[in-house]
């Protein structure tokens, strides 16, 4: 079995009256693309955000590489443990350059040791993995069209060289060519031993990409599918099944 890079056990999260997650346990394994599938409001984003420390869980535990995270995880702590997220919202700092936006938050020990040239090369190479477009590193990110801004925020996640990259509906603005290039990059990223958690609604890309699909309904993880079960008919059947015993 592949190594478990990130996992949660018995995670619950409530927003007021809404139980967004109920007793959810998942394992994210090296070399795999994990997809979280579910209808609107089923808890996909909440799970993604709990896994990377953007949201604290009410109960349960988070483990990285088998090690229990003590206390309340936050994004900086989880990044130090090799877990990065790209959120649904396209968050660039508009008046800062593309280069600065890609390197944003990279003040860890490893990146402090990099020269300006090395950082520029890292940003250039990461962008080239994601698009054939020519995006000038010195241009203010706010001047870019939305799909290029989205590429920049995905590049920021990849440039952090995480062990686990979480993409929460982060591809909506991409065109077909950039989407294809991203998927090739994610596959190569996993083949090198990392893992991806991919939150998406789009059935064709889920079927194309996933090594394992985790199906959410009303905050509950109702199914985990692999191999030949990752096909549109089976996924749809799980997606629409009525929940009993909840
Ligand atoms: N910050 C918040 N405050 C209050 N309720 C929230 C908050 N975040 C999520 N929720 C609620 O928790 C439930 C799960 O939301 P979540 O965003 O995780 O679902 P989702 O499956 O990602 O949905 P979508 O596909 O629409 O993004 C929903 O009912 C949502 O309204």
UniProtKB/TrEMBL annotation:
Superkingdom to which the source organism belongs: Bacteria
Xref: Pfam families: ABC_tran (PF00005)
Gene3D superfamilies per the UniProt record, alphabetical: P-loop containing nucleotide triphosphate hydrolases
InterPro entries: AAA+_ATPase, ABC_carbohydrate_import_ATPase, ABC_transporter-like_ATP-bd, P-loop_NTPase
Domain ABC transporter: 6-243
GO function terms (MF aspect): ATP binding; ATP hydrolysis activity
Presence of the UniProt keyword Nucleotide-binding in the record: yes
Alphabetically ordered keywords of this record: ATP-binding, Nucleotide-binding
PANTHER family referenced in this protein's UniProt entry, alphabetically: AUTOINDUCER 2 IMPORT ATP-BINDING PROTEIN LSRA, CARBOHYDRATE TRANSPORT ATP-BINDING PROTEIN MG119-RELATED
Family of the protein in this entry: Belongs to the ABC transporter superfamily. AI-2 autoinducer porter (TC 3.A.1.2.8) family.
Protein's name according to its UniProt entry: ATP-binding cassette domain-containing protein
Taxonomic source organism: Hoeflea prorocentri
